[in-house]
Write a structure and sequence with these properties.
Layout lengths: L2 H24 L3 H4 L12 H6 L4 E4 L2 E4 H4 L1 H31 L4 H24 L8 H19 L3
Antiparallel strand pairs: 1-2
Helix pairs in contact: 1-5, 1-6, 5-6, 5-7, 6-7
InterPro entries: Phosphotransbutyrylase (IPR016747), VanZ-like (IPR006976)
Keywords: Membrane, Transmembrane, Transmembrane helix
Protein name: VanZ-like domain-containing protein
């Protein structure tokens, strides 16, 4: 097999795998991803309840607080949004890295990466529109994009 071909597969495989994982989870209804009956039911959340009891803010026109959601759903919100940020950070990092290794200059690689991330984050939320019990949110597009941009930034620090 051609050495260049193998190198390209190694470069782009993480991008394809991460994008596929995002697509897979976007295809699942909320009930299949609900953390409350599993992980969160086995964790003592009393410390969170005591320390974050006064935390309250709006996200996508909904109040996020323990008093409104309960402690399990409150924690689940942060886990879910952290997962959005983290997976898109990985996607941005590996997409940018692949472009650089393909010989794209840094400035163009950043621009192409950010455009790709904006497109993929938007298409992910559109995909969720067609998935049962999922709500597409502009705020999630922004969160995903910022996570992806963070990944690009982190990778850009490497010389």
């Amino acid at each position: 097999m051609n050495h260049t071909y193998v190198k390209r597969i190694k470069l782009w495989s993480p991008v394809v795998i991460i994008a596929s994982v995002i697509f897979f989870f976007s295809s699942q209804p909320y009930e299949k991803q609900d953390l409350k009956p599993g992980i969160l039911s086995k964790v003592d959340l009393s410390l969170v309840e005591k320390t974050a009891d006064s935390v309250s803010f709006e996200y996508a026109t909904s109040e996020i607080s323990i008093s409104r959601l309960g402690v399990q759903q409150f924690v689940e919100f942060f886990i879910r949004k952290g997962a959005h940020f983290f997976i898109f950070a990985l996607l941005g990092l590996f997409f940018y890295r692949a472009l650089l290794h393909e010989g794209v200059n840094v400035r163009k690689a950043i621009i192409y990466s950010l455009l790709f991330l904006a497109f993929y984050a938007t298409s992910d939320e559109i995909h969720q529109h067609f998935t049962g019990n999922r709500t597409p949110l502009v705020q999630d597009v922004i969160l995903d994009f910022v996570g992806g941009a963070f990944g690009v930034f982190i990778r850009s620090l490497k010389k």
